[in-house]
Specification:
Number of strands: 10
Distance between the termini: 45 Å
Shape: globular
Bound molecules: octanoyl-coenzyme A
Oligomer: single chain
Strand content: 15-25%
Number of helices: 12
Strand order of the largest sheet: 1-2-3-5-7-10
Structural class: alpha/beta
Order of helices and strands: EEHEEHHHEEHEEHHEHEHHHH
Helix content: 40-55%
Radius of gyration: 19 Å
Largest sheet: 6 strands, mixed
Length: 260
């Protein structure tokens, strides 16, 4: 077994961004328990770090991640699955308050596609492929694939992917609304970091509440979500960043946001 870290973290202090790279290349970044532990730990650490405002998660040129580790779960009983409750851990990713961009090259399959969808938005290389192939191995998506994919691309396309197990291309994923931005394969990380840097210029408080408000669209009725959005909007008027942002606009200068 290799001693290489399963997740590599690189900070870009000037841009106030960080890059988290899944690092299990021989297994196409198959998401075993140890990789998920390392990923969740890294994301939580970066979420606590005031010098980081936006995070990018990537894999390598062959795969973002080819799914949950099939070898690890092949022999499991329902009770093993229940007791280890590996999918419960995915809630740690949902609770990250900073924007997290998925920079996807190659395969994003099964849990890999679900991981990309659990993050906030997807930047994909032209050669990326997204799929939920669990049906091929006698199961179904278990970490949000039937739900997030359906919300992202609609029932009919989600049914096609989930019931056939066949992947879609980055272009199809972009046209369907799953992917926010397509770029050349070799520029995926660079372009995702540039997007992250652009976001990192904004108020960290506004970023956090904007993320929370958009996510509420998935979880609340329209009436409740609109009320929630309005409360978050009003709350920002308690921040220095709102005073600074509006003053800077009126004084025709660049705002200096502190996150307070
Ligand atoms: N699990 C374990 N090992 C894997 C996985 C995987 N998901 N994917 C690839 N690997 C391994 C291969 O076994 C192979 O290892 P070795 O060299 O030791 O034989 C190595 O990675 C390279 O793979 P291939 O030789 O197969 O490479 P190819 O380029 O020929 O094919 C594919 C690439 C098409 C991506 C192919 O590897 C494949 O189909 N992989 C499986 C994809 C899949 O079925 N994913 C879904 C898994 S189930 C799932 O994700 C459920 C999620 C539930 C929630 C998460 C709970 C934690």
């Amino acid at each position: 077994m290799s001693d290489d870290p399963l997740v590599l973290v690189e900070r870009q202090p000037e841009q106030r961004t960080a890059l988290v790279r899944l690092n299990r290349p021989k297994q196409l970044n198959a998401l075993n328990g140890a990789v998920m532990d390392a990923l969740c730990d890294s994301l939580e650490e970066l979420d606590r770090d005031a010098d980081v405002r936006v995070i990018v998660v990537t894999g390598n040129e062959r795969a973002f991640a080819a799914g949950a580790d099939i070898g690890e779960m092949a022999g499991a009983s329902p009770i093993d699955m229940l007791v280890t409750n590996r999918i419960g851990q995915w809630d740690r990713i949902r609770k990250i308050t900073k924007p997290v961009i998925a920079a996807v090259n190659g395969w994003a399959l099964g849990g890999g596609c679900e991981l990309a969808m659990t993050l906030d938005l997807i930047v994909a290389g032209e050669g990326a492929k997204f799929g939920q192939p669990e049906i091929n191995i006698g199961v179904i998506p278990g970490a949000g694939g039937t739900q997030r994919l359906t919300r992202a691309i609609g029932k009919s396309k989600a049914m096609r992917m989930v019931l056939t197990g066949e992947p879609i291309t980055a272009r199809e994923a972009e046209a369907a609304g799953l992917v926010a931005l397509i770029t050349q394969d070799e520029l995926v990380v660079e372009d995702a970091l540039a997007l992250a840097a652009k976001m990192a210029e904004k108020s960290p408080l506004a970023l956090r509440l904007a993320k929370e408000a958009v996510n509420a669209a998935y979880e609340m009725s329209l009436t409740d979500a609109l009320a929630h959005e309005r409360r978050l909007f009003y709350l920002l008027f308690a921040s220095d960043d709102q005073k600074e942002g509006m003053a800077a606009f009126l004084e025709k200068r660049t705002p200096d946001f502190t996150g307070r």
